[in-house]
Specification:
The complex is a heterodimer of chains A (414) and B (81).
Chain A lengths: L8 E9 L6 H9 L5 E6 L3 E6 L11 H6 L2 H16 L6 H5 L1 E7 L4 H12 L12 H5 L3 H10 L5 E5 L4 H14 L5 E8 L5 H9 L28 E9 H6 L6 E10 L9 H14 L9 E3 L6 H14 L7 E3 L2 H4 L6 H9 L2 H4 L1 E2 L23 E2 L5 E8 L3 E8 L4
Parallel strand pairs in A: 4-5, 4-6, 9-10, 9-13
Antiparallel strand pairs in A: 1-7, 1-8, 2-3, 6-7, 8-14, 11-12, 13-14
Helix pairs in contact in A: 3-7, 8-14, 11-12
Chain B lengths: L2 H15 L20 H15 L14 H12 L3
Helix pairs in contact in B: 1-2, 1-3
Classes of the chains: A alpha/beta (414), B mainly alpha (81).
Chain lengths: 414, 81
């Protein structure tokens, strides 16, 4: 059945903070020019490691006091939302602010702030009277979305979506669902990460033998390569302005694409090991709900993080879903920016949306020696590839505890 | 600490807590608390605890109303600091 305009969700604005770009143009250019955002980094207790760090101007939209009181995740979110609204050409009135919602995916939140407080009171023999009164507002799970509403005076709903590394996609999905429910007219949706601020995530991945190590930071994130040895932890964010099509058309908004379908499911098998059968089911459902066939998908942005087991599982699922799909090409944005955790799904989708205009799929870097277990037909490695057409992009995001979230964005056509 | 040093210590703390505000023109009798949100004021109390070992019980918060009253209240507590 054909959807009406008020049943179709479109992307009308993009704001992002990536380790290799602070706006879509810079980010896309660096993806096409093979510029990595991974750098040397040192974190308390853990010591020297690697990370993807953002370099946007946090004072562009916040006071120094707001930065002191708030969280890095909140700051990333505020920057991205301002940039997304400006990109969408929206200057919200009070009545529009009441009909705007903020829906942000997070892998985790509160670890950075809790570690900071414990470190602080360690200077005072761990006496809890030195524990900050800012701890609770900094660590409540809605923090990044709530900071956005305070900064911009948005009075509609706000909440975060905890979905491990599938959270960025789930933020987008939730925004779309809130629009379809009629709860809001504008959804500011996506995901953020402040994960490099917590030593715990580095130490835990290291204990799991899943933390990337490489003498050259730019070569550390290497999904599909034989010598991949783990994840590069990154910060970042991407927020999309989502609207129902009727509203977007009425205000003559620029439309980046249509969020045509999605699926979220659960492996129900293991805390950390992914399940390729459930991943394949998730992709098939998302494609089907978009009214498409697998062969209609021209670009698949893979979730692969650079872990030995995880990349293979996803490739098994991809080979099953996209068998006999000669026009489908595969790539991986994490090879440039590392794993931006709660931001990953949204940030990686943003990096691929310009393909509708330039008909180019950005490549996967650092695949010097392709792992045969990760071989996919039309895996774009080494350099970008021009395609005859790009009409649909599928974006994979999978997370711990077996949460999978897949989105499909179609080229907009009335 | 002298009264002048205590006054400067308070100004340094509020400068750190609300760095976007120009505190240089704050008069001794001007309302300090009126320029601070409730969480900012608790930051002042926390910094006095951390930096100078001074405890300000909640019942005494009213004593920190102005720069002048802060100095009056803190002087005996900081006399040997």
């Amino acid at each position: 059945m054909k959807k009406t305009e008020c049943e179709r969700i479109v992307i009308t604005g993009i704001g992002l903070a990536s380790p290799n770009g602070s706006n879509l143009q810079e980010y896309r250019r660096n993806l096409l020019d093979s510029i990595s955002g991974v750098e040397a980094y040192s974190v308390r207790y853990f010591g020297d490691t690697l990370a993807g760090l953002c370099h946007f101007d946090a004072l562009k939209y916040q006071t120094r006091k707001e930065l002191r009181v708030g969280t890095r995740a909140g700051s990333v979110a505020i920057y991205c939302v301002h940039e997304a609204l400006a990109d969408a050409g929206l200057d919200l009135t009070d009545s529009e602010k009441a009909r705007t919602g903020v829906f942000i995916g997070i892998t985790e939140h509160g670890n950075v702030e809790t570690e900071n407080e414990i470190y602080e009171i360690s200077k005072y023999e761990y006496q809890t009277k030195y524990w900050s009164h800012h701890h609770n507002p900094r660590t409540v799970a809605n923090n990044p979305a709530g900071e956005v509403t305070i900064n911009l005076g948005i009075t509609g709903p706000h909440f975060t979506l905890g979905a491990a590394c599938a959270a960025g996609n789930l933020g987008c999905v939730t925004g779309a669902q809130q629009l379809l429910l009629g709860e809001v007219d504008i959804a500011l949706a996506g995901g953020v990460s402040e994960s490099p601020g917590t030593f715990g995530i580095f130490a835990a991945f290291n204990s799991q033998n899943a933390l990337a190590k490489h003498a050259e930071p730019a070569k550390a994130s290497r999904p599909f390569d034989q010598s991949r040895n783990g994840i590069v932890v990154s910060e970042g964010g991407a927020i999309f302005v989502l609207e129902r099509l009727d509203r977007a058309l009425t205000r003559k908004a620029r439309i980046y694409g249509e969020l045509a379908g999605w699926c979220c499911n659960s492996d129900a098998t293991d805390t950390v090991l992914p399940n390729s059968v459930r991943q394949a089911e998730c992709m098939r459902q998302a494609i089907s709900r978009s009214g498409l066939q697998p062969s209609d998908i021209h670009i698949v942005n893979t979730h692969a993080t650079g872990t030995p087991a995880g990349d293979i599982r996803e490739c098994e699922a991809l080979r099953e879903v996209f068998a006999n799909c000669p026009e489908t090409h595969f790539t991986n944005t994490k090879s440039f920016i590392g794993h931006s955790m709660g931001a990953a799904g949204a940030l990686e989708l943003a990096g691929n949306l310009p393909s509708f205009d330039d008909l180019t799929v950005h490549h996967t870097i650092n695949v010097d020696d392709l792992d045969p277990a990760c071989a996919l037909p039309n895996l774009v490695i080494g350099q970008p590839k021009k395609l005859p057409r790009v009409d649909a992009i599928l974006n994979n995001s999978f997370g711990m505890l077996g949460i999978n979230c897949v989105t499909v964005v179609k080229r907009f056509s009335e | 600490m002298t009264r002048a040093e205590i006054s400067q210590a308070i100004l340094d703390i509020v400068n750190e807590i609300v760095p976007d505000e120009d505190w240089s023109a704050l008069g001794p009798e001007e309302s300090l608390r009126g320029k601070l949100e409730s969480m900012d004021f608790l930051d002042v109390v926390m910094e006095l605890r951390k930096q100078y070992g001074v405890e300000v019980p909640e019942a005494d918060y009213g004593q920190l109303a102005t720069l002048q009253s802060c100095v009056d209240y803190l002087e005996p507590k900081l006399v040997n600091k």
